[in-house]
Amino acid sequence: MSVGKAKLFVRESSGLTKQVSLIDAMMLNIANMGAGLAIFTGIAPYIVAGANLWLASILTFIFTLPLVFMYTFFLLDIPRTGGDYVWLSRRLNGTIGSIMGIALAFNMPPFFALAAFFSVAAIYYVLLTIGTLNHQASLIGLTNTIFVNPYGTLTLSQDLIIYGLSALAFAIIILINVFRPKWGYTITTALGTFAIIGTFVAMAVIAFNVPDFHRAILPFLQDFNLTSVASQKYTGPLFSLPATLYMIPYFASYAYIWLYAGPAVGAEIRTRNGLKYNLITGSILTLILITIPFYLLEVAGGYAFNFNLFPTYTYNFWTVAIALAHNYVLQWFIGLSLIAWEYFVMAFGVIVFARYVFAFAFDRLFPERFANLNKWGSPANAHYLDFIVTLVFLAVPIISPEGVQALYSYTPLAIAYLILVSIAALKHGLGTKKTRFIIVSVISLVFMLFMGYEAFTNPYFGVITSTGQPFWPGIAYIASLIGLGAIIYVIARIINLRKGIDISLVYKEIPPE
After folding, report:
1. Measuring CA to CA, how many Å separate 101 from each of 86, 91, 287?
2. What burial letters (b/e) apply to 40-60, b meaning 16+ CB within 10 Å?
């Protein structure tokens, strides 16, 4: 690197080592897409009459496949820490890339805070289901005192207990990544492996009970007072293509469009095959982990039966699998697998957020200290920032129920970001004359524009109300993150100009590995 270039970046090498395997990177992507939570209470309660959930999952995968290829092609061309932030700032515009990169990165802690806070919901349903089915008052008691339903009306002490448990879990993951960064990947992969195996075991349990499903599930329905709900007459269509297509944005926003994890650690992936296959393998496995559970429930229960019960939240893939296990040890194995999915998501988040902050600091957008590595090779200061920001957002569910709704507006912001990444990919494809890049970027752009329309017209995404009125807390949340990006960029530009460094020149160069 020339002397001129060396002055642009904090140093001539990132210092991060190539320690990430294909499996590690794939697991980051699977956690990013959160299949196990999608089949919990993420999508099914929002089903509309006639919608076929397993088919909607397949269609969503097909529609988002160009996005997967676009990210893969970008990753192969520019494998750098910070992934899509680097692509956007170098191939579209430095200022826009900086502002939106910061907005996206700080869009992550609210998601991680929600995952941490509502991880208690997974523990609650596991304890409640196993306790009720086995008539264990001690487990049911825990759901009334400590691991209460976070979706219910909580006392301040219950809120504080959830906050404390969530913060403790997050702190442990942060400390592991600070003092043993390689263990951060190992733990993420281990949690993911356990969660995925448990999901397949749960599938096998339901598949085994298909011939006698309605008799086998009856005790569960009786114990949870759901027999009258299950027997309600359903008069809607058993299948509607428009209704199925209507569910595509739900599947896309909850799972299939989240592809930034593997690329964010691109400079640390050891092999070319790791770069090439981590996104597609993660996406295919996510397709399997979402589609088969919904297919099995439809084959076993029938459309009307499931349609009546999905909105209760109590009836979902995981609770059904626990109920049908008929073995105490197996029930706990399946239940712990669900809980593992929650911590799997948190574990990936700690790794990925720190890489974005590291990339910002390496470009002099953030203070240099955030690009420093401790003696164990960890971007410790970036992890500490993640912990502080997440703790702040973790308090939002306690302070304001409307604030919780606003945090769900992270999806519209991410969609706007992906639209820009698609434009950057198109520009890169035209500049490099790579036809495959041009094709997938155009298709991705069209799909993301459709998602953008959905994000700002569907109450599910947190920027309008069910009556069609603007949801101002959600809009304020999005505006504040973009504003934060703009403020940080302006301050960084001014500070660096005083040092004789024009950071706009940084974005004319690909950062060193």
Report:
1. 9, 13, 28
2. bbbbbebbeebbbbbbbbbbb
Distance CA 381, CA 374 (A): 9
Chain-centroid distance of CA 486 in Å reads 25
DSSP-assigned states of every residue in 42-109: ISGGG--TT--HHHHHHHHHHHHHHHHHHHHHHHHH---BTTHHHHHHHHT-HHHHHHHHHHHHTTHH
The residue type of 301 is G
Q: What is the pLDDT of residues 63-122, one digit of tens each?
A: 999 999 999 999 999 999 999 999 999 999 999 999 999 999 998 888 888 778 778 889
**Residue 304, CA distances (Å) to 135, 195, 258 in order:** 29, 29, 31
CB 133 within 8 A of CB 223: yes
Residues ≥6 apart with Cβ < 8 Å to 126: 318, 322, 335, 336, 338, 339
Query: Could you give the 3-state DSSP secondary structure of residue 265?
Result: strand
Cα 332-336-337 angle, rounded to 5 deg: 115
Confidence of residue 473 (pLDDT cuts 50, 70, 90): confident
CA 193 to chain centre: 17
| Tens digit of each residue's pLDDT (9 = 90 or more) over 345-397 | 999 999 999 999 999 999 999 999 999 999 999 999 999 999 999 998 888 76
Give the bridge partners for 459, in sequence order: none
Burial 451-475 (b: 16+ CB within 10 A, else e): bbebbbebebbbbbeeeeeebebbb
Helix (H, G, I), strand (E, B) or coil at 20: strand
Count CB neighbours of 510 within 10 A. Answer: 14
Read off the DSSP letter of residue 470: B
17: phi then psi, degrees, rounded to nearest 5: -100, 155
CA distance 494 to 481: 20
CA dihedral 100, 104, 110, 116 (to 10 degrees): -170
Taking the mean position of all CA atoms in its chain, how far away is CA 388?
A: 20
Entry pTM: 0.94
